[in-house]
Amino acid sequence: MANTTYNAPPAVSGWQQRALVVGVIGLIATLAGYFVDHDQFYRAWLVGFIFVLGITLGSLGFLMIQYLTGGSWGVATRRIFEASARTIFPIVALLFIPVVVGMHSLYHWTHLEDVAKDPILQQKEPYLNVTFFLIRAVFYFAVWALLASFLAKWAKQHDDTGNHSFRQRLADLSGPGVLIYGLTMSFAAFDWVMSLDPHWFSTIYGLLVIAGQGISSIAFTIVIATRLWHREPMNHVYNSGHFHDLGKLLFALIMLWAYFSYSQLVIIWSGNLPEEIPWYLRRFSNEWKPLSWALLVFHFILPFSILLSRGLKRNARKLVIVAGLLLVMRVLDIVWLVAPEFKQTDVGGLWMYATAPIGIGGIWLWFFFRNLQSRELLPVKDPQFEQALVAASHH
Amino acid sequence: MNVNKESNIYGLMAEFDNPTAVVVAAKKAHEAGYRKMDAYSPYPIEELSEAIGFHSNRVPLIVLVGGLAGLFAGLGLQIWTSAIEYPLNVGGRPLISWPAFVPVTFEMTVLLAAFGAVLGMILLNGLPRPYHPVFNAPRFELASRTHFFLCIEAEDAKFDLGETRKFLESLGANEVTDVEK
Q1: What is the distance between the alpha carbons of residues A226 and A315, in angstroms, rounded to a whole number?
Q2: What average pLDDT does the structure give for chain A?
Q3: pLDDT tens, position by position, A260-279
Q4: pTM
Q5: Under a CB-based contact definition with an 8 Å cutoff, are residues A233 and A8 in contact?
Q6: CA–CA separation, A380 and A302 (whole Å)
């Protein structure tokens, strides 16, 4: 084992090019949509951006969590999480720019003439105003970019020198890092998605988005790990134990997402107050009702029931199908959060909700694969490295 | 005489002083065609259950059935009480309001699934059982402290007091003893 190298297989650069082609086509289609209906374009862009942000930051979160918990699943998937997390700057930050450009179209609270007539929005004005919104956005991205760059830098130094003090430093940053991620992402979710309806509020909303990010990142990691597992060198590394661990995490996160979703619903539904309940009435009324049902069935009941099976979680070929389904459901969940906030004037523009995540996702994947190829696929100097290759097969 | 003696034998107990030896012995015994055997160890050894040819058990199925029973019982109880037996209008909501029914349904699902897990495990283990012949083996109390035991039972088709004893001794057991019924 000692003299093996774990560089990414040549196939990865092929995937990278394919991702770019798909991304450019999706992006061109979405940009064409701008000239059809530019309001719709910005909404679709927001959906695509939040989806990709979810994979990136969910991976940043799990990168830090595995430094804290240790364990073979973390050693085996660390480089995938790291490659995702490293995309936060510059590409994910750049993908946010159209949201800023489209602010006036997306966020009602930017319409000063309406704020002047609305006492509630006047109360919220010290927080919900364009200047502070932009300052916060810069702050969030700066914090995430710093976390990702230190985690990547020290991991590289650990690889290069074999000095385990870097491993300790990574864990020391990860502790506060997880807390910082939870807080900044909560507020980012309030700013970027929840404020689409500036009258409505839910304190669990940030955690709900974070649970979704966890699902996105684990599902994405399962897809990438399965692709790599078919090829040298990872076919000697990954075994059913690793996929079992990832499957268990996915299972737990689905339950967490359902639990947060239900908590928010049951409190608002029981209170039935005029300032809260319209948010759900929009989603449970005719045009969005099928999507609400689809989320209940395909984002929770179906994957939950399938993932009960131990054998399935240990079978990468089957697990990856569940992961793929959940990635699609993640996009639909974000559509469900965003789209019902707007009066749909033209149903014809809905296709952009599909092309924008594909376009943005393809471009993002190009950067992800570039990062993945820049390092060995396993942290060979990690103290738990040898153990991680063997131990996982038994539990 | 020999026949008489054999009919009074539960099995042969081999004692090992390390976990690797007992796993290897169990694997060899399984390969040699022995099926009715059990291994005893002070702590769980996952390879050991595989080695004696133990593949799956029915506890997960019992848990699933328990969980589903709890789900339908919890849901049914609430629908029956608040919509059929004593229809109660709460703030103009429909009589069958599923968001309100989730917590009890969930708790009932977990409760009966947990009962299924505990009781299923106990019953499938053959418990409660006040008497078991393996405790007749000398030094068997060490199975909960320092030593590892493999018992090939007389019910096994391949069991033969003399042959099986030789076989177990060839596996490197410290000691092989008869276990009386």
Answers
A1: 10
A2: 93
A3: 999 999 999 999 999 999 99
A4: 0.87
A5: no
A6: 38
Range list of β-strands (E), chain B = 9-16, 37-40, 148-153, 175-180
Query: What are the angstrom distances between the C-alpha of A70 and each of A137, A172, A313, B42, B53?
Result: 32, 13, 21, 28, 32
Interface A–B counts its CB contacts (< 8 A) at 16
Task: Identify the closest residue of chain A to B64 by CA–CA distance.
Answer: A308
Three-state SS at B45: coil
Strand, helix or coil for residue B90: coil
- State the amino acid at position B34 in one-letter form: Y
Neighbours of A216 (CB within 10 A): 29
**Residue A168: how many other CB atoms lie within 10 Å:** 13
What Å distances lie between residue B78 and A301, B9, B106, CA to CA? 21, 56, 12
A310 at interface of B, judged by CB pairs closer than 8 A? yes
User: By mean pLDDT, which of A36-45, A65-74, A365-374, B127-136 is the weakest?
Assistant: B127-136
pLDDT attached to residue A353 = 95
pLDDT tens, position by position, A202-251: 999 999 999 999 999 999 999 999 999 999 888 888 988 899 999 999 99
Contact yes or no for A266 and B60 at CB 8 A: no
What are the residue ranges in chain B where pLDDT is below 50? 1-2
Distance between B154 CA and the closest CA of chain A, angstroms: 32
Instruction: Please compute the mean of the pLDDT values over residues A318-339 and round it to a whole number.
Output: 97
Nearest residue, CB atoms, B99 vs list A269, A308, A310: A269
Judge: B102–A270 Cβ closer than 8 Å, yes or no.
no
Calpha distance B32→B29 (Å, rounded) = 5
Query: Under an 8 A CB cutoff, do B60 and A310 touch?
Result: yes
| Amino acid A330: pLDDT | 98
